[in-house]
């Protein structure tokens, strides 16, 4: 039985996530521990991903020319944004402003996030290969904006150290 109601023109707008291959979200050279994979779908102006950060994940500072909204589905994650940061746990939502330098680390339990990026964070080669566009045949995918991550050579260990000191003092 066809799951689509109406004309066949709606095909392409829906996909089961188990049909989306895992993308390597952050290359091994850009982490100091752990790994992160994601299932990524996108339209012309936004991408949505379910990203799993494995235990011990710790990314290097980066930025991208898109706003990022996240919801913690499972686990907890330390987020560092510019000169500060916070701990987000299961059920929390948070935002990373466009072009803000940010990075994260997770503990022994790992973390799974629902992430939305606008414009689409599909410009990195490993993501571009696996991401699935949700377009009708008439639309095609030629108008999709594809933003990539940038990895500035900047040390931010002082931010993490200061936060650990502040938390320990409480």
CATH topology: Jelly Rolls
Strand proportion, as a percent range, falls in 35-45%
Number of strands: 13
Number of domains: 1
Low-confidence stretches: none
- Strand and helix order: EEEEEEEEEEEHEEH
Q: In angstroms, what separates the terminal alpha carbons?
A: 60 Å
Kindly name the structural category: mainly beta
What general outline do the C-alpha atoms trace?
A: globular
For the report, how would you describe the main beta sheet? Answer: 9 strands, mixed
- Second CATH tier, the architecture: Sandwich
At the first level of CATH, what is the class? Mainly Beta
With helices defined by DSSP (H or I, 4 residues minimum), what is the helix count? 2
Quaternary state, please? single chain
Radius of gyration: 17 Å
Whole-number mean pLDDT = 87
The CATH superfamily is known as Jelly Rolls
Relative helix content: 10-25%
Feature tags:
11% helix, 170 residues, 2 helices, Jelly Rolls, 13 strands, mainly beta, nine-stranded mixed β-sheet
Set down the secondary structure blueprint.
Blueprint: E1 23-24, E2 31-33, E3 36-42, E4 47-53, E5 58-59, E6 63-64, E7 67-81, E8 84-89, E9 93-96, E10 102-105, E11 111-118, H1 125-130, E12 132-133, E13 149-150, H2 157-168
Parallel strand pairs: 3-12
Antiparallel strand pairs: 1-3, 2-5, 3-4, 4-11, 6-13, 7-8, 7-9, 7-10, 7-11
């Amino acid at each position: 039985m066809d799951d689509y109601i109406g004309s066949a023109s709606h095909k392409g707008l829906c996909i089961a996530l188990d049909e989306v291959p895992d993308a390597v979200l952050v290359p091994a050279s850009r982490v100091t521990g752990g790994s992160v994979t994601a299932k990524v779908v996108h339209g012309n102006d936004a991408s949505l991903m379910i990203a799993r950060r494995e235990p011990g994940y710790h990314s290097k500072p980066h930025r991208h020319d898109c706003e990022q909204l996240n919801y913690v589905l499972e686990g907890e994650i330390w987020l560092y944004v510019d000169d500060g940061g916070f701990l987000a746990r299961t059920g929390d939502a948070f935002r990373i402003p466009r072009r803000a330098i940010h990075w994260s680390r997770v503990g022994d339990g790992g973390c799974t996030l629902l992430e939305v990026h606008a414009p689409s964070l599909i410009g990195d080669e490993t993501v571009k290969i696996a991401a699935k566009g949700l377009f009708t045949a008439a639309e095609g995918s030629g108008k999709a904006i594809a933003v990539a991550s940038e990895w500035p050579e900047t040390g931010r260990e002082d931010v993490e150290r200061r936060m650990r000191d502040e938390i320990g003092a409480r």
